[in-house]
Amino acid sequence: MRAVKSLTPATIQPPFAAYSHGVEIPAGQKLVFCSGQLGIGREGDVPVDCTGQAELCFANIAAILAEAGLGLADVVRINAYVAGREHLAAYMAVRDRLFAEPYPASTLMIVSGFARPEFVVEIEVVAAGVAEAQVFQA
């Protein structure tokens, strides 16, 4: 069960899309920071469209989080970068399909490009989950 709290003060403009202005993490949860992931498969394949690349980015992120015993439902912060305004809708459709309330905090930026010209999206996240029980020895 996700125990984070969405922070959306009534005194400011509501979010423009499916994200939270802020997310409060309860004490005792572990944090996992994922580096920016590109839409590239294990064998080096890169989809030509933003939708395919965004799906691979999130699949790569899910694999990283699984190593820590977490999943996409534990994501509390998303930073996404697209290489043009024309990629905004495709990226947001993938993100909105994968995340539910309480939504992660999220920033989406348009950048001039990435390390290789075929990439059109890069995504990094922070996830928080219940820390595993610690064993203390006397």
Descriptive account of the structure:
- The protein is an alpha+beta fold and 138 residues long.
- Helices cover 21% and strands 29% of the residues.
- The protein contains two helices and six strands; from the N terminus they run βββαβαββ.
- Helix 2 (88-98) links the parallel strand 4 and strand 5 (105-110).
- Helix 1 runs parallel beside helix 2.
- The longest helix is centred in the middle third of the chain and has 18 residues, at 50-67.
- The protein is globular and about 40 Å long.
- Order of H and E elements: EEEHEHEE
Instruction: Give the proportion of residues in helices.
Output: 10-25%
Can you summarize the main beta sheet?
Answer: 4 strands, mixed
Any idea what the shape is?
Answer: globular
Strand order of the largest sheet: 3-6-4-5
Computed Rg: 16 Å
Number of strands: 6
* Count, helices: 2
How much is the average pLDDT? Answer: 92
Q: Catalogue the unreliable spans.
A: none
Strand content: 25-35%
For the record, give the distance between the C-alpha atoms at the N and C termini, rounded to a whole number. Answer: 32 Å
Secondary structure category: alpha+beta
